[in-house]
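Subject: Interface between my chains keeps coming out wrong

I've been trying for a while to get a sensible model of this assembly. When I model each chain on its own everything looks fine, but I need the whole thing in one frame so I can look at the contacts. Pasting all components below, labels as-is. Any help appreciated, I'm running out of ideas.
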Amino acid sequence: MGAEIEISNLSVYYGAVRALTDVSLNIPEHGITAFIGPSGCGKSTLLKTINRMNDLVEGFRAEGGVTVGGRDVYGGIDVTQLRKRVGMVFQKPNPFPMSIFDNVAYGPRTHGVRARAKLEAAVEKSLRDAAIWDEVKDRLRRSALSLSGGQQQRLCIARALAVGPQALLLDEPTSALDPISTSKIEDLVTQLKAEYTIVIVTHNMQQAARISDRTAFFLLGELIEHGATEELFSMPSQKKTEDYITGRFG
Amino acid sequence: MKARSAALRAAVYAAAAITALTIVFLVGYIVVKGAPHLEPELFAPKYTTDNLSMLPAIINTALMTVSALLISGPVGVFAAVYLVEYASRSSRLARGVRLAAETLSGIPSVVYGLFGRLLFVAMWGLSLISGAFTLAIMTLPLIMRTAQEALLSVPDTYREGSFGLGAGKLRTVFAITLPAAAPGILAGFILSVGRIVGETAALIYTAGTVAEMPKNAFSSVRTLSVHMYVLSNEALYVNQSYATALVLMVLVIFINAGSNAIAKKLTIHSL
Ligand SMILES: Nc1ncnc2c1ncn2[C@@H]1O[C@H](COP(=O)(O)OP(=O)(O)OP(=O)(O)O)[C@@H](O)[C@H]1O
Ligand SMILES: [Mg+2]
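Reply #2:
Try treating it as a single job with all components included. I did that and got this:
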């Protein structure tokens, strides 16, 4: 089954506040799609609507369609299975207060993997895929909170990969990191796109231009424009997009 | 201006000194009065009116503490889990539980004793189990509120991380939230142990004053604090009650030190 994400005529409300208005967008497989736009325009809201993290918010309501791999996210799908297929990485690295190994093994254990050998294999593979294995292989039993911020974020990516997702949602994954850690994560994400559908929210225009294949620009809860990153940055069709990417916008 | 701040400083130092001296005096007084009378027969395996052994009372104290906490611990912690993790902000039940806890925590222990006598003693007589239930109710608000604080202080980013990996509420609570809150929850248990070990009024009403080890849960028992109270009421046994006070004091100091060490270990592990 594929992991293409289709969003059609989606509106999202928090109580009486409308956070997204009539958004339609296709996110193809095996590529990186960047969400850009000023603070409060609804980027995180859209991301959390895709894997239903918004369910926890009181007053949250979604109208319209979201499908992942052709399956309706808000129509009878098992949330656990959905989140297994669509992993998420947050703005602030949030490793659990437990060992590095247990952090990565948390997802597989959640989904019923008990055998030691299997867990060890999954942990190693995920840490390798997240390009952090060499840095932590000698201290898997140490607390994850002893890692640097950049290492913690790559650990969180490894933790998300360990459940075997097809898509990865990254909400400003580098905004709390230094330039070197940031470039490591960018390299990592670029490598991962061969196997995963990746959506990344970023406030950094250069980052979006550097790593993404497609870009979507949001403003006040509306999708203003989306398309191939190169085109959108070189010749945006909308004046608002141009103002935003050239920094003329507040 | 200068004179005023000098006076203020003197007052602060004086207050600190008075506090320190009070403790030194109290501890010293009890050690001086109690230590010479710490005779081996005070720790004989069996209590008689001749040896006045406190060993059964020490064991009863441990039994009473464990029994009471076995009841109030799970109830208090799970009530806190309900309030923090499950209840919606507008929930009536949640508001009721919070109000009950606040009210309960202000009631003097002697009132718990009276209540325990009317309810538990009527069913089970003066007994370990009546005392344990009474003290469980007495410590419940303390355990619940400290657990609640501890759970609230666990960052939401941990919960998000867990849900994001497909874990349900139950797994998130047991694998992430409760372990992260463990040091704070433990602090509530420690405070409760202190209250149970030091309690007399509520226990005299509910567990009675039999200075022997219990045959079963329905036997009357006296804890160390009650033992001391009983001894000190009899003019003849003043020396023995000082000795008992000394043991009680050392016991409490050890409990505090031990549980501080555990709490520290838990905190370091989670950092
Ligand atoms: N839990 C919530 N409850 C109520 N309103 C919310 C909630 N989360 C977000 N909103 C509102 O929805 C709108 C979009 O917020 P969102 O977090 O999606 O913006 P964003 O584009 O991610 O911004 P940023 O770049 O600052 O992260 C904002 O107006 C915000 O106030
Ligand atoms: Mg956001």
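Reply #3:
Confirming on my end. Chain A has a mean pLDDT of 92.
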